[in-house]
Automatic annotation (TrEMBL):
Organism: Heliobacterium chlorum
Sequence positions that bind NAD(+): 13, 34, 39, 78-79, 117-119, 142
Residues involved in beta-D-fructose 1,6-bisphosphate binding: 152, 167
UniProt signal peptide: none
Pathway annotation from the record: Fermentation; pyruvate fermentation to lactate; (S)-lactate from pyruvate: step 1/1
Pfam families given in the database record: Ldh_1_C, Ldh_1_N
Family, per entry: Belongs to the LDH/MDH superfamily. LDH family.
Matching SUPFAM superfamilies: LDH C-terminal domain-like, NAD(P)-binding Rossmann-fold domains
Protein name: L-lactate dehydrogenase
Amino acid sequence: MDVRISIIGTGLVGSSTAFALLSAGTSSELVLVDIDRQKAEGDAMDLNHGVSFVSPVQVRAGDFSDCKGSRIVVYAAGANQKPGETRLDLASRNVAILKETIPKLQKACPDAIFLIVANPVDILTYAALKESGLPSHQIIGSGTVLDSSRFRFLLSQHFGVDARNVHAYIVGEHGDTEVPLWSLANIGGADLHHIDFFGKAPLDRQAIFDDVKNAAYQIIERKGATFYGIALAVRRICETILRDEHSVLTVSSRIDGLYGIKDVCLSLPCLVTAAGRETILDLPLSFEEERALRDSASSLRTVLNDLGY
């Protein structure tokens, strides 16, 4: 079965995502679209030179009309986050770009799942919903899938266990107001209050969360941008959709009523299927976590209001 994935924006995140998807072998065709056509063509050439090492796949540069028939559209277009700049500072610039782009994509592939990756991802996911008029399940953001992976990695390092056996979520905004769900974090089914048998030093929860929340800033300070981690997160989301895995991932999607939150896009654990975001899990959060989540939603709503949404 032919599976086309289109990637809009071939900057560091878009091109790294193309490489991750090429390596995964989950699609038969990758279409790369960028305002700089030569950049997209160069990436396509570079990736095609390695196709003898992976499952059969065609990679080509194109324009919006070439996205026709795409199963997934990965939206990674927009201005880059500068050192010292928050994701929300990017909002007005990248919303303007999205407003020009989404109608063209919707015309080319109205049935695709739109996966928003560009930042600020929660704001852009909401803007894409409003500008397109598509149903909420069809437009999702990468959200805190990467943040949750960072959280699990740091906990795995502390306790000396495989990160795949750490179950922990970051929810809310993908950014400064994100919320760690300590009350639900567990390793192999045991919550963090019952794993003293690992013989490790006491867990400094604030230090670990600070490292999660500030990871992007720390990486940007050192190398100018983050792109490998998010590319792997996007690969994971795409695999879940294409394989109809019914996996639980903290994608960003429209919330309207859950935990007292109305009409914003943010991340909560969701069931992700071939249809996109199918179900948002209603988890038993602690009082403090629920309050922090509402504060995160309020912060996002303020930005949306400023943008006219």
